[in-house]
Design a protein that fits this description.
Two copies of one chain form a homodimer.
Chain A lengths: L22 H13 L14 E5 L2 E4 L4 E4 L12 H13 L9 H11 L8 E5 L2 H16 L3 E5 L8 H5 L14 E4 L10 H18 L4 E7 L16 H9 L3 E5 L24 E4 L10 E5 L1 H10 L10 H16 L2 H22 L3 E7 L2 E8 L5 E2 L1 H13 L2 E2 L1 E3 L5 E4 L7 H18 L2
Parallel strand pairs in A: 3-14, 5-6, 5-7, 7-8, 8-9
Antiparallel strand pairs in A: 1-2, 2-3, 4-10, 9-10, 11-12, 12-13, 12-16, 15-16
Protein name (chains A, B): 4-aminobutyrate aminotransferase
Cofactor (chains A, B): pyridoxal 5'-phosphate
Pfam families (chains A, B): Aminotran_3
Chain lengths: 444, 444
Amino acid sequence: MSKIRGILDQNAFNMDSIDQADARIGALVRKRLETVGPTSMLFYEEPLHIVRGEGVWLFDDQGRRYLDVYNNVPSIGHCHPKVVQAVAEQMGTLNVHTRYLHEGIHTYSERLLATLPAPLNRLVMMCTGSESNDMALRLARRWTGRQGIIVTEAAYHGNTSAVTEVSPSSYKQGMPPDFVHIIPISQMPAQADPAAWFADQVRTGVEQLNALGHGCAALLVDSIFSSDGVYADPAAFLKPAVEWLQAEGMLFIADEVQPGFGRTGSGMWGFERHQVTPDVVTMGKPMGNGFPMAGLVAREELLAALNSDVGYFNTFGGSTVAVAAGTAVLNVLEEEQLMANAASQGEYLKQQLTGLKSSYDEVADVRGAGLFIGLDLCDPTQAGAPDPVRTTAVINELKRNGVLIGAAGKSGSTLKIRPPLCFGRAEADLFLERLQQSIKATAG
Amino acid sequence: MSKIRGILDQNAFNMDSIDQADARIGALVRKRLETVGPTSMLFYEEPLHIVRGEGVWLFDDQGRRYLDVYNNVPSIGHCHPKVVQAVAEQMGTLNVHTRYLHEGIHTYSERLLATLPAPLNRLVMMCTGSESNDMALRLARRWTGRQGIIVTEAAYHGNTSAVTEVSPSSYKQGMPPDFVHIIPISQMPAQADPAAWFADQVRTGVEQLNALGHGCAALLVDSIFSSDGVYADPAAFLKPAVEWLQAEGMLFIADEVQPGFGRTGSGMWGFERHQVTPDVVTMGKPMGNGFPMAGLVAREELLAALNSDVGYFNTFGGSTVAVAAGTAVLNVLEEEQLMANAASQGEYLKQQLTGLKSSYDEVADVRGAGLFIGLDLCDPTQAGAPDPVRTTAVINELKRNGVLIGAAGKSGSTLKIRPPLCFGRAEADLFLERLQQSIKATAG
């Protein structure tokens, strides 16, 4: 089993090495295997037993603290008291589904819709980004009458049957189905004209899907290309492709599950940097800061078309408590000006990380927007080839140095930097210091 | 739009009648349409604006209280303080995913697995019953290498693309796909040999799926047939069909999203009444008493097979907070002996409801187990034909009389009785009294 590893397993604990683990950790891992089993994956060479979280910090069972540069779900900070309070109060007052009237859902929806371009005028509330992308695929296929979907090579869009098909990073064998066309975004030329290259890739994809008889329903991308290893620039590189697709009657689905809610610093949604208007926007992870909730925004006519075929109801989606959590998150984003913080701290961090390229031959590239940054590690002795082994070593060294981080990208050699948005200058400097220590410790 | 109605819309507010609604309600409905839109459905001829919940009671914005005979998510009672406290405490301490070690998930999993037959030895935690059934379909198809699924005629198993295909009650047009075989459970003979009839239906389904070249992967049923209108008896009527299927290498998936967690009174899981051991058990709704969580239990080898093809991770599934909510629910179920209460109150209620058949020609049949009971309403002037119009009238009359209830069944003429499990004798009597008033008020 340990030999079959998808991209997402890059930083996985190897269950075969359980006997080498600390006794206390080993016992917990054994219990995990005996109860949760095969689909469960643990991080790190030696898994981490976390017991407490606060702001940008996580604490293990030995009282050791870790700077969290990984978790983008608790986007306004671990255990933010305003979300905890809002959820506790609403759970103690009323927790019901959307088939009764309740003002909260309308107020929340209006507020969220106001952050999106006008044609996107309806919000469907769900529980997970997977559910949201699952519906997005259905909306696109129903609307266009076509089956094909274009995605990027290491994309992750969720875990349902339909969404796994369009999530190459989840494949271990036997995928993709031939109605999924894959764009090798890691080959996008940085210097030439990325927008023209991307548009060309999309056109080629549509031609191939047409030739196979599937046609193309939609281009589905995470607007910061998180799992692909973070491709943010140049801004607007999606524009020609999306405008051509839309003119031809196909849809553009912006998966904002990771970049959304201010993380990119320049707007609530990652697609804004690309000067496009999606047909469908999906969102999730940070929406409730850890309270399970997600959403899909689309034009009313797309939803009405699907609704004429099948009913849709989501038991927990848009519950009074989900709405309370989501509202608290929007409040905190505004009150603490976290989008501005993501912009300024992200800019500083990206500048400093880019500066490391001149000091460390192992640092090949730095890309990102706001507090979503990818840093490629390479092997200088192998003509700068991507270096997933070193990346795993750096991740584990950083953990020993009290910093939590993960990997992304087709080859698993991109450090994925996406801390809670309340990340400050002191934390950025601490991270930069520990990162350099870890690169040095694992070099050569 | 109002003309296209699935079974689930039986008790839906007709958006076309918005102008007849009370001004206050009308304004809220308009706001709903402008923000949430086409996939949103509201209950009742005039929607209800609920603002508070406690135990078996819900309260509207005018301070009026309603006995809740409908909601099976807050199964241990609306806003149960022990769940609220557990969630608030854990949210304030740590809310992270399953990729770090945390003892709670193992303890919870062991406890839950102990309620299931031994071959079912692994728990995957998710957010919704839909996600759980979606994975169940994949497990069955991966394990058998076959595509076909057998379900019942008005089944509801969730809302993802894959699960909607096997949910006839969601269809409005164009379904089912030919790899879905449908059993007309409403035609199951009550007096003859229902078990033989059901087994025969399954064998016929397998033959037809084989003839179409799909083969049959699994029989998927809600073990109390909730959406079909509640088919509980005779106990063990599933046994011959399931044993034959399993002997032939096909799987039995027990959807316990509605009957699970003690509702049927005679065990934690509805399938226990049928003396069968499922290959996969899915669960959801009451698992967190309203905190969004769900689970799938299966034999390890089924999960390992899927895991060799694709990775699976669920961001919110099995989070520290979900585990806290689920643990509190299990504690309360035990402390308040709610399963025993479901058995005794359910038995009383079923007896009394059955007694109504002799007084009211409109009451055609009563079926159920524990606190999950279906009552068929018919038109005595039409040879006892199912009467969905009367059913809708009774539901709305009950609402005016302070009782919340819904409909189920292929023809939408079954009252679906499934109150929170803390439902007491006084509430049962109140319900019986109001039900009779409502039948009288709508008769003739």
